[in-house]
Amino acid sequence: MSQKISLTRYLVEQQRSHGHIPSELRLLIEVVARACKGISHAVTKGALGGVLGSAGSENVQGEVQKKLDIIANEVLIEANEWGGHLAAMASEEMDGIYVVPNRYPQGEYLLLFDPLDGSSNIDVNVSIGTIFSVLQKPEGPDSVTEQDFLQAGSRQVAAGYCIYGPQTTLVMTLGHGVSMFTLDREQGSFVLTGEGLRIPEDTKEFAINMSNMRHWDTPVKRYVDECLQGKEGPRGKDFNMRWIASMVADVHRILTRGGIFMYPWDKREPNKPGKLRLMYEANPMAWVVEQAGGAATDGRGRILDIEPTQLHQRVSVILGSKHEVQRVTAYHSA
Length: 334
Ligand code: AHM
Ligand code: MG
Known about the structure:
Blueprint: H1 7-18, H2 23-45, E1 54-58, E2 64-66, H3 67-80, E3 86-91, E4 98-99, E5 109-117, E6 128-136, H4 146-149, E7 158-164, E8 168-173, E9 178-184, E10 189-194, E11 205-207, H5 218-228, E12 240-241, H6 247-257, E13 260-263, E14 276-277, H7 278-291, E15 295-297, E16 314-315, E17 317-320, H8 322-333
Parallel strand pairs: 3-5, 11-12, 11-13
Antiparallel strand pairs: 1-2, 3-4, 5-6, 6-7, 7-8, 8-9, 9-10, 13-17, 14-16, 15-17
This protein binds 2,5-anhydro-1,6-di-O-phosphono-D-mannitol and magnesium ion (MG).
């Protein structure tokens, strides 16, 4: 029987062979993974744990918070605040940044997360997940501020997600490809189940919320319309469609068998660039996808090159199989 490689061993061996994981970053990843394990347990309990339903509050973006949104946020903060590896955290569920309290040592990293992405799926028992992104605090003696977080996605030092589905799976990149770990519930640890993941460059599967079609811009309408025409249309092949309404689950499928995911700008709220958030949804997913040979744009340029101006800023997202993303992006400049 081949030996199981735990996340801890994987990180140690990566450091030994490539030397690219400082010990504080290793600790950070292990702590995030441990927090995800805790969130996974809470998710699994469902109604038995009293964790379903609305919390009766709204987040900074005016979205109703579910009980599990808040629980997941607290689990991530409590797990990460004392280790000395972080200077501050930011989350979809908090208005401003959370600076590590004075009673703990401050580290050099910044952690951003969407504690529970795909919230609308919580109560209906469909896959949801945690998305995370790690940046380095800019050098200098000054205490950490929101401005320190406003770095382009290309400066991430680690990113990934944990999906709570039929299996709990952690997927991450440190800039040297994408690795996948499955939670072994008997052992209580994440075990390496995939390395060097690759997204096929071509696909016959697209993911978009079709109910928004009438609000889309011309390039996205054109692309989807051509897919829908199938074999008889300009693409000369039939396409399949999936929409889980959980970005984590849609991206995980794309990472497994290819596809394209789009949550584009639309005319419902013309002043907002899109629905998804750049810093803790689009950037980490874009990096994972690029590291697996895919592409990620906002229709105009690379998501990872966007210089953020606000912590909770939104962005149009088109990501997945490279040739399809390139096609939609080209339609935007046609
Ligand atoms: P959330 O972070 O509040 O859960 O919102 C993000 C989610 C994504 O996971 C998903 O792709 C999208 O919202 C679904 O939106 P819609 O319900 O408009 O299809
Ligand atoms: Mg989200």
